[in-house]
Amino acid sequence: MQVKSQNLITWIKGNKKEFWMLLGVLVLAAFFRLWRIDEYLTFLGDEGRDVRIVSRFVTDFDLMFIGPRTSIGNMYLGPLYYYLIAPFLALWRLSPTGPAVLVAILGTATVFLVWFVAREWFGKVAAFSSALLFAMSPVVISLSKTSWNPNIMPFFALLAIYSIWRVWRHHEWKWLLVVGASFGFILQSHYLGLLLLPTIILFWILTLRDLHSKVGNFLRHTMLGSVIFAILMSPLFIFDAKHGWRNFESMRIFFTERQTTVSIKPWNAIPDLWPLWQDQVVTRLVVAKSETWGLWAAIIILIGAICLGYGLYKDRDKFRLQSFALVSVWIFIGLVGLGLYKQHIYDHYFGFVFMAPFLLIGGILQKIWDTKFKLLVIIIVVGLLWINLQENPLKYPPNRQMQNVQQVNQKIIEESQGKPFNFALISKNNYEEGYLYFLEQRKAPVLAIDPQRYEETLADQLFVVCENPICEP
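Below the sequence we write its predicted structure tokens.
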């Protein structure tokens, strides 16, 4: 039975217990993401840069054609993320809390989407366990509490995967439009979202191979989806065309010449597949960074996946077997792609595959439940929840980064006595954009030194904020 095929009210009436369980999971997810979000959110240079740019759009309608700059490769993303957070920045009266709330809402919506997809692909137990474990993952929670372009990727990545599933499994061509739109958001969230493209293309090809008729309709919807993607990417294209294709050239260099950053030989990723699976995906996402539990969980999930695939094949359960195949390919290609990246891999880098291990675990637990080992499923879910609760972000006091910046700025404004001043920040892990944002909001007479207009922009006062333990300005 598929939830989406029924009227919502009718479904709730017929599945009251499941509805209340789902609602409980969503309330829990929203609580852990929204509780005191203004105090827990990250507010450093990147976040300050983003709200400075978007605030000019909100107040002066200064259109944005490029988005954030990547930390490696000197490339720019598209501006779609900026336009997405603009209404929330406006609703919160230019407070950075507004965009963070949007990310938290999308994070909660991702929990629902995990439930929805697992419910269709594997069953009720898979849906509840996948959504609950995903909702409680400390890494996922932390990234859902901060306004940052990579943090919107999980929602759109799962939406794209589910959409290509609808195309492949049910031949519903309208979902190709959703694929195009979703991938536009993904690629403007982080360029590592490109690692989702091989999975999408593979199942697009499998769909085309299976068609005996209506190929024209399939290709027409593919073209429409591509047009939607192109429209979403057009601001970046226009900017690049006006500036000598600098962004395109940076991307070409990044993927073809910078062999210290990316390898183009897929077999080079093989030695890193298990470390990536154990250390990055399972340890950090599933068992709250516990290395001890991560090793055992990685082994058990892999064995469980093999048994699940064999069991579904033996039972001739084609529907679930195809779902399992899609999740497995999604994870495998993601690991290969990350294995080709030669730099340090941060948590937000694999946001395009965040949901896959939880869907896989859900499928395994559903199979165990169906074989009458219900107590074992309960023990596993409760055990994983207990492990994740040990590192829940709300156990720790809030960083109050935004409030600290505001307090420092208040002191600077008082000391400057309304006279122009220059500003500098000394920090290993931050830069001045966050401070400048609130100084500008307070109409403080801060001047950025311009080498071309040195005399005009050099003030008589210089305020230096030092965030390092040892400060020698």
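The beta strands are 421-426, 446-447, 462-466.
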